[in-house]
Amino acid sequence: MHRLMTFIWLVSLSACSGSKPLALDHHTFITFGSLGGFAGTYKEFRLMPDGSLFKKSKYQGGFEVMESLSKEEVEHIFDIIHEVNDLSLSTNDPGNLTSFLSYTKNGTVLFECIWGGGNEEPHDQLLKSYVLLNKLCRDSFPVR
Description:
The longest helix has 16 residues, at 71-86. The protein has helices spanning 2-15, 22-25, 71-86, 124-138, and strands at 29-36, 41-47, 53-57, 64-66, 97-105, 108-115. The protein contains four helices and six strands; from the N terminus they run H-H-E-E-E-E-H-E-E-H. The radius of gyration is 14 Å and the shape is globular. By secondary structure, the protein is an alpha+beta fold. The protein has a single domain, classed as Mago nashi protein, CATH 3.30.1560.
């Protein structure tokens, strides 16, 4: 699991253009997204504690700056992520359609979960966190 997330992170790092280095300058962030399927799609979001939000997809060369989330939304999300972290979850079950969620604090990955293979049932709190993150970030638009 750690190898897959490290690989995703390294691919993201190497694919980031020089014009958007901000997404990689932070040491504390939540990473979540999905990958796989027939078309081989890839979508990753990175949320910073200050509400900055970045998105990367299969068709982008680097992270795209999105509209920031409000302070209240970010505090709520990070509270939930801390609860998930306290559960000491470890899910490594990639599949054709894979979802992932990880939390990095001060440059150290505190947890990373990968699911979608059908062999492991992800914890309810993990799924709730993932759904909430997607709901809040789905409505965010690129900053132009």
